[in-house]
Amino acid sequence: MSNKSTFGQIASGVSRRAFMVGGTAAVASAAVLRGARAQAATKVQFMYPVGVSGDINKIVSGMVAKFNAAHPTIEVEAIYAGNYDNTEQKVITSLGVGDPPSTWLPINSALQTFLGLDSLADVTQKAKAGDIYQDFLPQFLDTCVSDGKLYGLPFQPSTPVLYLNRTAMKEAGIAKAPQTWTELLEVAKTLTIRENGELKRWGLTIGGGWHDWIFECYCRQNELVPWTKDKVLFDNPAALDALEFWVKMEKAGVMPKASTWEGSANDFMAGRTAMLYHSTGSLTNLRKSSKFEVDVAFMPKNKVFGAAQGGGPIMIAKKQTDAQLEAAWTLTQWMTSTEVQSQWCRDTGYLAVRKSAWETPEMLAYLKEVPQAKVALEQSAYAGAFLQVPGYHKVREYLKSALDRTLAGEIKPDAALKEANDASNREIQRLLRRRG
Amino acid sequence: MVISTALSARIREAGLAYLLLLPSLAFLAAFTYWPILRSIWFSFHDVVLGDSKIIWLGLENYQRLLEDRLFWKAFGNTAFYTVITIPLAITCALLLAVALDSKLRGMAIYRSAFFYPVMIPSVAAGMVWVFLYSASYGPINKGLSLIGIPDTAWLYDSKWALPAIMVMSVWKYSGYFMLILLAALKLVPSDLYEAARLDGISAWNRLIHITLPLISPTLYFVIIIGLLHSYQIFDYVYVMTHGGPADATNVLTFYIYQNGFQYQDVGYASTLANVLLLFVGGLIAVIATVFGRRVHYLGR
């Protein structure tokens, strides 16, 4: 039955005046209801970034719309703020004028920065009241813990993984993913293609922009966590060994000196590089947008397997009304609930934070179809939090600059790491001095 | 009596002048002079964005700056960018303006075409050039491969990234400078050219001895504007390279932004901003002294 005929039947059975009056009353009552909801609803903002490739913005705004529909007393405004850096800057600027968003999603390394600004709500007791300590995967929950207190909940944890162009590997006669650094170099050599001296395909690309994160993974594969709470250890021989291996790969002509985060993902999808270190959060996009078979493997080990835990938690502002705090906590719990996390993981490739989310029927079916999705979870058993030091931002830039300049051949690895180490520790000391 | 009437009229006139100036002065004071004073004050302190605690440091930030390798790198990059881009853009603009000053058919279309890059938003233009410069599939590499130049990742190569941005800037600014110079050319009396032509003066000599001296006030203005633009370059760096690779494209304004907003180190960012302000101010003073005196003002 078409809409037109329905309207015609109604119009013919009811007088025009009665119809108009009824219609007006319906519209008015709807407006009153909306007004009542607007009055009763607690308004909170959720500021979030998009830190990987793909259409994540649309997914998050869809999730928030779903939350709003299911919670008539809360009205969440989803604010897309750019990348992690942009989001952090916007939150910090709004903290400066005393009007922060209720919740936001920073990179987990920003924990100490926000604690330094005394801006985070301690949710330890709230979390203990529920099943959070029992059901959340501890390696992810740990990224929100400082001095035994919980600040926010992990939402989109990730680690770098090694993406492989399976089709290219088959063509080159390579049966399995490289397991060690030595194998990685050999496989990268085999997969690099040059025609008449001109490069057609890199064997390997390390996703630029976050290559310091990947470098920490390399340090951890050398049994070094390159930082403590109040200093970095970039001048440690294990870190130097890792950087010297990067230089070796670059000199062997199997990987570019530099790349960008989005550009390296695009290069992989376009077949310009056969292997790629990138976030597990890019899995769905890389898998769906590549015209070849995409495989995922552990990052190869040296002494041990190792990874640095990236991604972000949802943090809650300390200075807001009790009603807003409660609403923000409801939102945070909902975003990290079993069903939502299961769906989020399948949509993006980020790791679900709850054990139960990995056991839903939909997730089990998905893992059967896409076994690659589980690689990062298994690898996270070897992972620890990424660079939890005050002033992590500047420290990252010092390290990235050292890595870039070394690969560009401008400076020797040991001098570069020493310089980055000293500059970083000066910055950390400056910030610790502020805290007294 | 007469004197006092004249005096009160002058006072009224001055009062009205100040009243009319007040709105713009208030804006300037609030958004320019006050921030400058505040940034001078901040440069002697440890100030963190989002934190109300301010710690007195004395000259520590300035000492840090002297030892900061990245500051000197950004300073060098900015100076290199200015020294190459401004003369190149102005020369291109001048040649285009002279060419477009003739009476050819469809001149309006040419003028619009050369001015078009100016109208494109910087971020959009930056994104387009990222594509143009792409390795392998970028049109620039495709074109260069026809003449045997090997594929280069222009924006990822620390040798080429800054020159690549400079080429784009010349493309973007030449049209703007061209339009200003074209307006100046229109004011040069045509009888001077006719007289020169009758005397058998070549086109090159007419350009050097008639055109350039007579448009020198505008040229002077364009140089100052170009200089200010070059020390404000930020958007292309942000969009195209983010200061990389290996800090090869990190320029002073971008470094200030990084310190102030990314690292929340407002005290040090203020120090950098003050040094930039002093340097650009000094440079303009030097140019005004050296070049400003050579400017010919028609009829004076």
Report the principal-axis shape of chain A: globular
Q: Provide the CATH architecture of the largest domain in chain B.
A: Orthogonal Bundle
Task: Using the 3D structure, state the CATH architecture of the largest domain in chain A.
Answer: 3-Layer(aba) Sandwich
Identify the overall geometry of chain B. flat
- CATH homologous superfamily classification of the largest domain in chain B: MetI-like
Classified by CATH, the class of the largest domain in chain A is: Alpha Beta
Whole-number mean pLDDT of chain A: 89
Beta strand count of chain A: 15
Low-confidence stretches of chain A: 1-16
Oligomer: heterodimer
Return the structural class of chain A.
alpha/beta
Count the domains of chain B: 2
Number of strands of chain B: 2
| Ends apart, CA distance between termini of chain A | 74 Å
User: Which fold name fills CATH's third level, the topology of the largest domain in chain A?
Assistant: D-Maltodextrin-Binding Protein, domain 2
